[in-house]
Specification:
By secondary structure, this protein is mainly β. 5% of the residues lie in helices and 56% in strands. The chain has 4 helices and 31 strands. The strands form 3 sheets. It has a 22-stranded antiparallel β-barrel. A 5-stranded mixed β-sheet has the order 1-6-7-4-5, with no helix packed on it. A two-stranded antiparallel sheet has the order 2-3. β29 and β30 form a beta hairpin.
Length: 662
């Protein structure tokens, strides 16, 4: 394995010797947001065209995907959990309804109706709300006003390992004043097989996603847009958890108005109102040897709006955003003893908690000269929580007798970024400060069982705001044959929220090791560095590489959980006319800096080989794409730091995707 690492590093050095530099670049500023896809839908950019969004996002060096099964992985940004990040769909705030994070926001969209995923690191993502680690904004694909016509596609896929069947279609109509987009996607999969030929039980899933977008243009600078997403997943297994999911259902709706003034210093004004509701039901009825049957439903409803305007005055490019949302989250648990003479037990695990946020975000970029600019941004918001359930409030007062039902917090952020670019070279320096409030679970959760460290968790409404000081640096070089970049982010987070053992409190869950209450370390330090290297070896052959380094440690000198060991990817891409193919290796070094206090164990290194190919057939205005490949070619048996409770990853998997568009 070590020989493979040394070979990759040697090839990096050798290709630098032969890199040719012919063309210069037009003026390009280093961006704070990584655009993963643009214009074309995401599935058109992948060798595995019908991959899940989870599989797509994990290709980014800034994102780690925590895996609890074969479906709905949890995205972490800069090795920070979802409590410290913000995930939006077209700028809309959405909150999951599961106390065990079985329904991340990314699980309620499909790759077929997305155009790009904008990943922002740290405070560059605070335009969508208070964050520490960053944000992901999932932007849906949609038609543009133009010539009258109908277009669409039909696509189908099959994966042999878990017998996953995929079927989707879209039908769109456009003219100069009106467009309507319709999209549907269906997936069903059985249990997958790991590299040791064992069936990973309870890893099946079934999912339906339907979306519709309608736009109407009043004139060339005013238009209105409505959008609806309906997503329903059933029979979802989670092999790393003690329960599965019988239903995860979401309805996401919005109404947007956009105005582009003519002959004004304001370029665009956009406002949107939205509503989404999520229902989530955990289920243990298919599990053998259940000590006590439980029903665990959860609900989350969010009403929100935002108003954004941007413009330019002389050398200043500015934007302003007002965000407001109201969320109500409730989750409960009912336990049914096997002895009918015993009483049924009931408790609220999320005690009907309201979150009401109102905030404003401002930024301005000033062009210092033709090579450099300075961006200053800041936000100020009010975060309000209230426990609506009297029963839930009294339950929490067992631990916090003086607890108030309501609590209001002021959240602030500030960021500055200096950008410089000349010919092929560009770099960025950033300094930022941000705050976040505790999540519903951290502040008000009641006996939430964590199957990773086997502890029940109890929230703490008296937690202080987390405060992060962030420094970042990025440098990039690009020529006609070579593109390379290095980015590093450093976070010093005060009042770092994490669970600590409460030895005097007895657990509620059968078999639990004890109870942890959310408290705060004095501080935690996290570092993330990403090195990317791309080179055209010939006009048709490109070599793509990425190395990611992560570090995380608390003020108690203990490692933080879910911090990735050194990770790498190296692949060769060949493209000639209508044919393209890719051969790549990806892996991690040994996970030696693990966190035993939080349930982690030492994980070995791994490396897997993947191959994909693509051929396009065209007939007049019709396009037929055939994409095939093999993942984990050597059928390696492995698990990673991101696999909850050390569930094994999928073994060898052959896939085929067929896409027909017109």
């Amino acid at each position: 394995m070590k020989k493979l690492y040394y070979l990759v590093l040697l090839l990096f050095w050798l290709t630098n010797l032969f890199a040719q530099e012919k063309d210069t670049l037009s003026s390009v500023q280093l961006k704070e947001i990584l655009l993963i896809g643009k214009k074309a839908t995401l599935e058109q950019k992948q060798f595995k065209a019908l991959a899940t969004l989870d599989e797509y996002l994990q290709q980014s060096g800034a994102v780690e995907m925590i895996k609890r099964g074969g479906y709905a992985w949890e995205p972490n940004i800069n090795n920070m959990s979802s409590e410290r990040t913000v995930i939006t769909i077209d700028g809309m705030r959405i909150f999951g309804a599961c106390t065990d994070k079985m329904d991340p926001i990314t699980s309620y969209v499909e790759i077929s109706n997305l155009s790009e995923a904008a990943i922002s690191s740290g405070q560059s993502g605070s335009c969508h709300g208070p964050t520490i680690g960053g944000s992901i904004d999932l932007k849906r694909s949609k038609s543009e006003f133009g010539e009258k016509g109908i277009n669409g596609y039909v696509h189908s896929g099959y994966e042999f390992n878990n017998q996953q069947k995929i079927l989707g279609a879209a039908l769109n109509y456009t003219d100069s004043l009106f467009f309507i987009d319709n999209n549907v996607m269906f997936r069903t999969a059985e249990n997958y097989i790991s590299g040791n030929k064992n069936e990973v039980l309870f890893s099946q899933f079934r999912k339906l996603n339907i979306s519709n977008t309608i736009g109407y243009q009043f004139n060339k600078n005013k238009y209105i847009e409505t959008a609806v997403i309906y997503d329903k997943a059933t029979d979802v297994g989670y092999p790393a958890l003690p329960m599965d999911v019988s239903l995860a259902e979401a309805l996401i709706t919005s109404l947007k108005f956009e105005y582009n003034p003519l002959d004004s210093f304001i370029n665009k004004l956009e406002t949107k109102v939205y509503y989404n509701t999520i229902t989530h039901t955990m289920d243990d009825t298919k599990r053998p040897n259940v000590p006590i049957h439980m029903d665990m439903p959860g609900w989350s409803d969010t009403y929100g709006m935002y108003l954004n305007l941007n413009g330019k005055v002389k050398k200043n490019t500015f934007s302003a955003t007002f965000n407001s949302f109201y969320n109500r989250s409730k989750a409960e648990m009912t336990m049914y003893p096997s002895d009918p003479n015993e009483n049924i037990m009931f408790m609220l695990t999320w005690p009907d908690v309201v979150t009401f946020y109102n905030g404003i975000y401002l930024d301005n970029t000033y062009e210092l000269n033709c090579h450099s600019s300075l961006k200053i941004s800041g936000s100020l918001g009010n975060h309000f929580n209230e426990v609506k359930s009297t029963f839930g409030l009294e339950s929490l007062r067992i631990f916090y007798p003086n607890m108030n039902a309501a609590k209001s917090r002021i959240l602030k952020s500030f960021a500055s970024n200096y950008n410089w670019k000349k010919e092929r070279l560009a770099f960025n320096l950033g300094l930022a400060y941000g705050e976040r409030a505790p999540s519903v679970s951290e502040g008000y959760g009641f006996y939430l069982f964590n199957s990773f460290d086997q502890f029940d968790y109890v929230g703490n409404p008296d937690l202080k705001n987390e405060q992060s000081i962030e420094g970042s640096f990025a440098i990039r070089y690009k020529s006609s044959k070579l593109k390379t970049s290095l980015s590093t982010s450093y976070f010093h987070i005060s009042n770092y929220i994490i669970g600590t053992t409460a030895v005097t409190i007895l657990p509620m869950t059968i078999g639990a090791s004890g109870v942890k209450m959310y408290n705060a370390l004095d501080y935690a330090t996290l570092i993330k560095s990403v090195f990317d290297y791309e080179m055209y070896l010939t006009n048709d052959l490109k070599w793509i590489n990425q190395i990611v380094y992560s570090y995380g440690k608390g003020s108690d000198n203990e490692n933080l959980p879910f911090i990735s060991p050194l990770a790498y990817t190296s692949k060769m891409q060949f493209k000639k006319r209508k044919f393209s193919s890719e051969l790549g290796v990806q892996g991690n070094l040994m996970h030696t800096h693990y966190a035993p206090n939080y349930g982690e164990i030492k994980k070995p290194d791994y490396a897997i080989l993947n191959f994909g190919s693509h051929y396009t057939f065209t007939f007049n205005s019709y396009r037929f794409n055939l994409k095939m490949g093999i993942e984990n070619i050597l059928d390696s048996e492995y698990t990673t730091f991101a696999d909850w409770n050390t569930i094994p990853r999928m073994g060898r998997n052959v896939f085929a995707n067929i896409l027909f568009s017109f």
